[in-house]
Amino acid sequence: MKNPIMCCALATLGVSQGKIDKLDPTTCHFYDLINEQHVALLWEQLVGRKSAQAVSQIEAAQVNWRQNHPDLADSLYFLVIVGASDKLIRSLQRNGVRTVSQLDDMIRQQMKMPTDWRKNPTENAALVQAYFDWKVTNQAELQRELETKPEVDLSVRLAQAANQQRTAAKLQKWFGVDEIPKTLMAFLRLDFKKKDLLVSRLSGETLQEIGDEHGLTRERVRQIIAKMVQQLPLFDDVEKYHKLVLTYDIQLDQFLNYTQGTEEIYTYLTLKYKRPKTLASLDQYLLALNKVAPDALGARLNQHGKFINHANQVVPFSAANVIDEILFNNRRVFDNDEMVVQMESFFEAHGQMQATAISARAVLAQIERQAHIIQRTNGYFRYYELELHDILDYLDELNALFDVADGIYGIDYFFDHNQSLMAELGLQESSELANLLKGLGYERFERLNTIVRQSQVYIGAIKNDTQCKEQFYLGVFHSLTGNHWQIPLTTLKLILRFSVQRCGHTWEQLISHTFIAI
């Protein structure tokens, strides 16, 4: 269908009707034509052939547009929109009439009108008023068509049009139809080429059965059907089951039982797309759709070695999943021995007899790999909400903790230093902070060197080797003066402990020496 505003505007600017008729209004827009610099190339893309005359007309129209476009919507040609004939408009133009406003003045002044006008003066006068009424209600549309750049670039629209043409050609070649319906079932009701082959295959017949029926080899039948399906789109009634069939391990009988789909739709999906080797359990789909009562589904899952976890997912009874479930539902501190007991109870409650294979050593190995677990000292651990990507948001705050003098500190010093940060991170004691830092990796921290036994934090140039520790402890010990109070208490304790061990002094001697120095 032609765009009347574009046609009237181009005609007013001097483009012949023959050239206007060659333009595709679904692709071409008035703004594109009137602002295009490479007119020759544009015309060839639009109509598929060159035309020097068309190019000349459009270039002249561009000049006219720049000079006269404010008055363009008052052109006599726009009477076509409300029903004026081409013959009437040409007659008026031969008598010097160029705009609707000019024609309206002639009517009001009862001036002599052309012969074609006088044949139906009342009806023709009504056309003028009808156009003025139309123009008032369509002012925004006029401006959009004449002066607004389309949202989609012309190059994109041309590519889409070319693709539509290619698609139409393929449809004619393969199926002998001009258009494909939106649903598979509607398409199968059409009369198209090789319909018997496709319908038979979608209805469950084997390649061999179809080949025997039509005198073809099974391989030739497979090739023909594969090519037909390749040319067809993903129909609306197929799209709604696309994710189901390609994500879950669902068979035809289950598909028919749990959906309103047909055998043809199921088979079409399996022919058009290659299903992954690894598919999610159908139980997860049934759980999401509430197709089976929860108790019945739970019992069915237990028989297949699966259960529904706290995230409403169907998962196998692996040690990792069971540990995660127990810790999530019991937000307290566990050790390995207690976790073994809890796991045995969990397996027994779900009818799983493999609980006897659990050992504390196996549990410990799982704990070290679990994502939602934070460890403490002496083998204790608990459920931890945050994941690594959550913790990374706090790297700047964690790095700020270690903006202290080089030395060896107790982990308690940093845990106590910023309690609000510890609360945001969900940390309950200093040993959890130590394990969190280890999990993140020391390389993420500029000042943190290492942590020893979840208690001693080596900051700056101090490393965990004998030479560095001796130089540090003895250097600080021999420089103890009245300003030693700048040293954290935990560091001072470590210095005293080291000095007792390395120098043979008693605690009393060292403390006495320190106070004498003060």
Structural write-up:
The chain starts with a helix and ends with a helix. It is mostly helical. Helices cover 58% and strands 5% of the residues. The strands form three sheets. Strands 5-7-6 form a three-stranded antiparallel sheet. It has a two-stranded antiparallel ribbon with strand order 1-2. It has a two-stranded antiparallel ribbon with strand order 3-4. The C terminus is likely disordered. The chain has five domains: 151 residues, no CATH class; 98 residues, no CATH class; 97 residues, no CATH class; 72 residues, no CATH class; 52 residues, no CATH class.
What is the topology?
Blueprint: H1 4-12, H2 17-21, H3 30-35, H4 39-47, H5 52-68, H6 86-94, H7 100-108, H8 115-118, H9 121-137, H10 139-147, H11 154-174, H12 184-188, H13 195-202, H14 207-214, H15 218-231, H16 236-239, H17 242-247, H18 252-258, H19 263-272, H20 282-289, H21 294-303, E1 306-308, E2 314-316, H22 319-329, H23 336-349, H24 360-367, E3 373-375, E4 381-383, H25 388-391, H26 395-401, E5 407-410, H27 411-417, H28 419-424, H29 430-440, E6 448-452, E7 456-459, H30 466-478, H31 489-503, H32 507-517
Antiparallel strand pairs: 1-2, 3-4, 5-7, 6-7
Helix pairs in contact: 7-9, 14-15, 22-23, 23-24, 27-29, 30-31
